[in-house]
Amino acid sequence: MSDAALDVVEFLLTTSVYSDDRTLDENDLPPSFRRVFWTGGVDDDGDEGRRHAGISRPLSATNSTARQATGVDQPWEAVSDLMFTERDEFSGTITLAQEEMAEQWYAERVDEERLLENPTLTKHLTTHKEFGDEFDASHEQARDQNRPIQADRVWIDGLLEEYFDEEDDEEMLDLVEIRAPEEVDMSLDDLVLTEDQENELNKISKAIEHRDYLANIGLREIGKLLFVGPPGTGKTSTAQALAQDMDLPFVEVKLSMITSQYLGETAKNVDKTFEVAKRLSPCILFIDEFDFVAKTRRSDEHAALKRAVNTLLKSIDNISLIDDDVLLIGATNHPDQLDDAAWRRFDEIINFPKPDYGMRADILTLITRTMDIEEFDPQLIAEVTQGLTGSDLRMVLREAVLEALTEDRTTLDQADLLDAVEEFEERDTLKNMDMMGGDHDALVAGGDLGKASDGGEPSGSEEGHDHAHDDGDHDHSH
To answer: Which of 32, 165, 277, 466 minimizes the number of CB atoms within 10 Å of its CB?
Structure first.
């Protein structure tokens, strides 16, 4: 029997069991199933303008819903030969004519690893009088490893639609970017982090896990991190990867956006941003360009900007990981521009320096793991890329791949990578030229990238170990 049949039968069983068992909730459905059945509702007063999202019983299994949930193109065809399935030609509904036979069929073919991906069926089968002893799994285990509903895009969109019920409020969304964990394409395992970075992230993960304990002992001043380091060293992507790993919505704010056309509303919009984070909690609130705070406080900027910055600082004071389930992460490329008022808002500072020789070799190995490169020596490339960030290294690999494609090649060699380093050096030189002053002898920002060091750790600014990947700040990942 095909995998498609197993997928569809699982879907049919899940919809049937979930519809009948009222002790189950949305977190008992696999995310791909929740996405299909998540719908808006209408207030009791009939106000069509205010909608509340949710999943209503009974769940209807049709060719369409089964296709969306399982990815099987022709769901009915996949199970039509099974004795326990039937289809209503008029409505298109697919049902289990003999559910006990379907349970037996499914139980004989599913393993524990797959079963644990479906809390609904884990509970049903492990408590079943016939199959209960066949699986070393529990409903609690399945719930623990199933992504929570608060991490789903449909849940986030439903909440935002409910909250931003006025046109003016919708404009505020231009100031933030909200990502569901499923939309983040990297995890912490995809990044190369320094030991210090790993230790700090582990501490905050433990703090999130034991929030109740910390509240009970009165330790509430925790959960406000500041990431500092040059562009391309992994600040943004580390925060995003943390969101994916912990199944938390990711709310990103770029402070420079408060100079947008909504200038007169900036203070209110800052308030609204923090309110969104609290409503999406537990979540990560990521505030980029935090040095903008100090710049604005020192300057003669518009009074509305200063009010907005003061509102921001007060909002930071009033938000808490322990009380509000919001992890606040600030990031800056210019820590030297922060004043004491900004520094004291954070309980942990995590450094993101440029990667050293060993870290560049690790980053290159990570980035190239899906590439076909003959006689690849990441240590050699690491030696000739002193001063580059993970983001820069990705650009080098991009240049090598594109250059090979112009020669109709998908297999690279070491020479391609060395040539790409030289191309990057030339581009970086042009970028750093003082064109107006005619200084055409400007040096590459990263140093003498074209020459290999004489063994060991290359000389120059090789401090720290950084392997994260950021975006502007996007760097050290695959």
So the answer is: 165
Secondary structure of residue 462 in the 3-state scheme:
coil
Query: For the residues 349-376, what does the mean pLDDT come to?
Result: 93
**Cβ-based neighbours of 23, under 8 Å, separated by 6 or more:** none
Give the predicted TM-score (pTM) of the model.
0.78
What's 111-123 look like in SS3?
CHHHHCCCHHHHH
Helix, strand, coil percent values for the chain (each to nearest 5): 50, 10, 35
**Per-position DSSP letters for 65-92, written without gaps between them:** HHHHHH--SSHHHHHTTSTTEEE-TTT-
pLDDT digits (tens, 9 = 90+) for 201-214: 999 999 988 888 98
Query: Which CATH fold topology does 354-462 show?
Result: Helicase, Ruva Protein; domain 3 (1.10.8)
